[in-house]
Amino acid sequence: MPDGIVIIPTYNEKENIERIIRNVFSLQRNFHILVVDDNSPDGTAAIVESLQPTFNDQLFLIKRKGKSGLGTAYIKGFHWVLDREYKYIFQMDADFSHNPNDLIRLYNECKRRGADVAVGSRYKTGVNVVNWPMSRVLLSWMASKYVRLITAMPVEDTTAGFVCYKREVLERIHLDKIKFVGYAFQIEMKFKAYLAKFNIVEVPVIFTDRTRGTSKMSGSIIWEAVFGVVKMKINSLFNKMTI
Fold first, then answer.
1. Distance between CA 24 and CA 215 in Å, rounded?
2. Alpha carbon distance 184, 182 (integer Å)
3. What is the CATH number of domain 4-237?
């Protein structure tokens, strides 16, 4: 059994899911995949199920009853993984905005170079984003700068969703105490790892916006991040934030 597993949350990703699964399984390093699907009405889960006989004991699926948010999908996946023996747990989107080839780079950063958390960073070496309008690039870049200013985390891309965690990080963080379910989930996970003094390393990657399917970003998700970060920092100062 490989020591790494990739968690891919999905909602209406029928255009991408088979391609991303086959791409990950074609890599030189062997990873397992866990898809967490939020009852996609477009049949995403059915596509995954049709592929399971081909990738027997490598491809796994959790079907949830409804659309409950990115954060809760990952938490569900983390608990599933921690009940097994995987040592390196990855977060990755289904839409190819995260290049599957970079999974190996994140893995090596944790496995060989001592990182506890390896972040696929869009902003470590400038702005490495393709096919986003300038308004969205600025919003994302400014959000990361804002989060870094408030939290003092030494991370350029605080909102990145392409991450590898060592098992010990997820075992240390109280996953059921995670407050945020949307965009800010990515921030809270990194902040709690930072508070627990884990070694967070950024690996420069090129982020390419989806070409198939539709984005799940919304205004409410962004505002959750803006206001939630301040509350998160205040709670940490008064020891009210459970790691």
1. 21
2. 5
3. 3.90.550.10
**Residues in CB range of 163: below 8 A, 6 or more apart:** 90, 91, 106, 117, 118, 119, 120, 186, 189, 190
* pLDDT (0 to 100) of residue 222: 62
CB distance 204 to 106 below 8 Å: no
Q: Report CA-CA distances (Å) from 230 to 30, 184, 236.
A: 40, 11, 10
Q: How many helices (H) and strands (E) does the chain have?
A: 8, 9
CB 87 within 8 A of CB 4: yes
Amino acid identity of residue 69, one-letter, is: G
Q: Report the C-alpha gap between 6 and 33 in whole angstroms.
A: 5
Question: pLDDT tens for residues 9-20?
Answer: 999 999 999 999
The domain segmentation of the chain, as residue ranges, is 4-237
What DSSP string runs through 187-199?
A: HHHHHHHHHTT--
**Phi, psi for 193 (deg, rounded to 5):** -65, -40
pLDDT at 144: 87
- The reported pLDDT for the residue numbered 33 is 99
Q: Provide the whole-model pTM.
A: 0.93
pLDDT tens profile 96-134: 999 999 999 999 999 999 999 999 999 999 899 998 888
Residue type, 51: L
Distance of CA 99 to the CA centre of its chain: 13
Counting as low any pLDDT under 50, the low residues of the chain are 218-219
pLDDT in tens, 75-97: 999 999 999 999 999 999 999 99
R_g of the chain, CA atoms, integer Å: 17
- 206 within 8 A of 99, measured Cβ to Cβ: yes
